Amino acid sequence: MERKLSPEEQERIRLLSDGEIYQRAIEFAKEQEEIIAYRQFGHQVSGLEAYARSFKELDEFVNHQKGRNWEEKSQSFEGFYTALANYLNNLREDVQGKYSFVPPEGQTKNEKKEQTDFFAGLLAREFVQHLAAEMMWQAWKSKKEGK
Amino acid sequence: MTDQQLRIKMLREVALRADGFYDEAEKLGRKAAQALTDKKSSQIKGLEGIANSALKTSDVFDFIKTRTARQKEWQKGDWGPDLLTYLSRDLRTARRTICTQLEIDPEGIDGLEVHLLLIREFVRQLAAHYEYVCWENKEGD
After folding, report:
1. Is residue A35 part of a domain?
2. CB–CB of B112 and A15 under 8 A?
3. Which of A1, A2, A38, A134 is deepest in the core (most CB within 10 A)?
């Protein structure tokens, strides 16, 4: 969906990304100690960044990874992707509810879905950027502290 | 107050506060020069570039986090982590003070702009100190 953001929408996305989404990404990363300790998350995070171009692609990728048959040594990725899939679901709901990016009335079901995916995609991209940076940061810090 | 008047007041407050940055900017500029040397000046250019173009403070924080995690030159002397702490914590305090003085919401878009202006000014000063120390070191060779 090609759509130009209004100045007001741009401001709201900037504020959400800098505030709530940034903080949530930090908390999310802190909950992923096992993944971070494993230090093999680089490819997974690169995958997330690549698929974060659209909400649909990201959501499909995350759910695919969640349902994958992980090797025993990589089992913790299943929990990571499950948590991420939950976060994306909640984010999508917030786009319609808490953040009110999508008007509750005056649109067809398809238009509403397209608009929700559009805004959820923009916010998810912000989240993935913050998450990737925070996970690298946490990994470096734990290595430095000899964990 | 019009948008333009507010912008001028924000710039004035940031400029006044920038005097207080000097010591910290010098300290971090010196550490950066020791760690990066003049051979890695592109790292400082990159930092200035992101600070000047960022629309969100978190873009600058993410940049510092990834650089520090990936590059040993950002880890040396802890200047990368110290820079992150200063920009995200100390300048957030400065942001709140300025916003209170100007009677604007520190968590609103103007508060965000104030924080970005503070970051740009601090990074500009840090880059100047970095260049100076690199020049000093060359002269000393």
Report:
1. no
2. yes
3. A134
pTM, two decimals, is 0.94
The pLDDT assigned to A104 comes to: 79
Q: Phi first, then psi: what are they for B104, rounded to 5°? A: -120, 160
Q: For residue range A53-83, list pLDDT tens digits in order.
A: 899 999 999 999 999 998 888 888 999 999 9
Q: Smallest Cβ distance to A140: which of B68, B107, B109?
A: B68
The total domain count for chain A is 1
Q: Would residue A88 count as lying in a domain? A: yes
Predicted local distance difference test score (pLDDT) of residue A71: 85
User: ipTM greater than 0.90, yes or no?
Assistant: yes
Does residue A14 fall inside a structural domain? no
Please name the residues between 46 and 65 in chain B that touch chain A, using a CB distance below 8 Å. 55-58, 61-63, 65
Instruction: Give the confidence band of A2 by pLDDT, cuts at 50, 70, 90.
Output: low
**In this complex, do A137 and B58 lie within 8 Å of one another by their Cβ atoms?**
no
Is B96 in CB contact (< 8 Å) with chain A?
no
Q: Do B68 and A14 touch (CB under 8 A)?
A: no
Mean pLDDT (chain B, rounded): 95
Name which of B64, B91, B109 to mutate to probe chain A: the one with the most chain A Cβ atoms within 10 A of its Cβ. Answer: B109
